[in-house]
């Protein structure tokens, strides 16, 4: 567990005891964030299934590596293995608790690393319904919060929280987040666009606890309500403590991906 998170959990009221909507919403978000961190490093396999409004599908396979780097944040590398025309394409992301996140995209066809600018991260990631800013989980510090209500969703008691991005270049005005009350896992997020219209809904399911510590979903679904398109992410082969280092997450490492 990160030292900053330990301190935050000690200083802030628990989700059940917080007295204001802001305090309670932030406490819920910290608890959910804590579930996703403290893993050290991780590897996994990802199947991305794109579905058109007519039901046509396209499949992509990626390998994913992530590393926690203490106070500076997390680093993630995603590399496409299939289809052939995308093989070797890589996305490197450095996510920070404070300040702008950094992303670089490597396109093997032109053998060039391109930085994703802050103004462009709301764009779709490789034709999927996940934006560049959705691809990795942001730290809780990236939002303002307000607790809304408690409700049962899909048979699970959930705490519903509104979070508003602090980043002026985010593609969203706000997000509504459902966190299950038992395990503090994010089960659903509704994304509202810059016109405050419901744009997308994300749902996560098939959670498994690895090494008796790290909760991860096997299924993530993003539905675009304006276009009817869907993207499903199917995770497998999670491995924690693989011994990854900082040198596995540099721009030079993007040039070496295969």
Describe this entry's structure for a reader.
By secondary structure, the chain is mainly β. It has one domain (3-255): Clam (outer membrane lipoprotein receptor (LolB), chain A). Helices cover 12% and strands 44% of the residues. It has three helices and 15 strands. The chain has helices spanning 3-11, 21-36, 251-255; strands at 41-51, 57-68, 74-82, 90-95, 102-107, 112-115, 143-153, 156-165, 174-180, 186-192, 198-205, 208-210, 214-216, 219-224, 230-240. Strands 6-5-4-3-2-1-15-14-11-10-9-8-7 form a 13-stranded antiparallel β-sheet. Strand 10 and strand 11 (198-205) form a beta hairpin. The chain is globular, with a radius of gyration of 18 Å. The model is unreliable at 3-13 (pLDDT under 50).
Number of strands: 15
Cα gyration radius (Å): 18 Å
Measured distance between first and last alpha carbons: 32 Å
Biggest β-sheet, characterized? 13 strands, antiparallel
- Number of discrete domains: 1
Proportion of residues in β-strands: 35-45%
Q: List the secondary-structure elements in sequence, H or E.
A: HHEEEEEEEEEEEEEEEH
Q: Indicate the low-confidence ranges by residue numbers.
A: 3-13
Lateral arrangement of strands in the main beta sheet: 6-5-4-3-2-1-15-14-11-10-9-8-7
């Amino acid at each position: 567990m990160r030292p900053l998170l330990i301190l935050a959990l000690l200083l802030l009221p628990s989700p059940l005891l917080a007295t204001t909507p802001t305090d309670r919403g932030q406490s819920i978000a910290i608890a959910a964030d804590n579930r996703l961190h403290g893993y050290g490093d991780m590897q996994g396999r990802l199947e991305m299934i794109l579905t058109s409004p007519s039901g046509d599908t396209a499949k992509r396979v990626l390998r994913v590596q992530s590393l926690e780097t203490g106070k500076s944040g997390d680093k993630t590398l995603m590399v496409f293995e299939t289809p052939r025309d995308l093989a070797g394409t890589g996305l490197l992301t450095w996510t920070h608790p404070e300040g702008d996140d950094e992303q670089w995209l490597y396109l093997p066809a032109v053998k060039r690393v391109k930085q994703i600018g802050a103004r462009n991260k709301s764009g779709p990631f490789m034709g999927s319904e996940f934006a560049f800013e959705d691809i990795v989980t942001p730290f809780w510090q990236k939002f303002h919060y307000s607790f809304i209500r408690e409700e049962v969703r899909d048979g699970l008691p959930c705490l519903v929280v509104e979070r508003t991005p602090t980043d002026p270049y985010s593609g969203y005005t706000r997000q509504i987040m459902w966190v299950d009350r038992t395990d503090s896992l994010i089960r659903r997020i509704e994304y509202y666009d810059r016109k405050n219209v419901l744009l997308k809904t994300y749902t996560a399911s098939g959670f498994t606890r690895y090494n008796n510590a790290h909760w991860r979903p096997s299924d993530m679904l993003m539905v675009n309500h304006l276009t009817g398109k869907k993207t499903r992410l199917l995770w497998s082969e999670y491995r924690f403590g693989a011994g990854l280092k900082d040198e596995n997450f540099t721009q030079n490492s993007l040039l070496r991906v295969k």
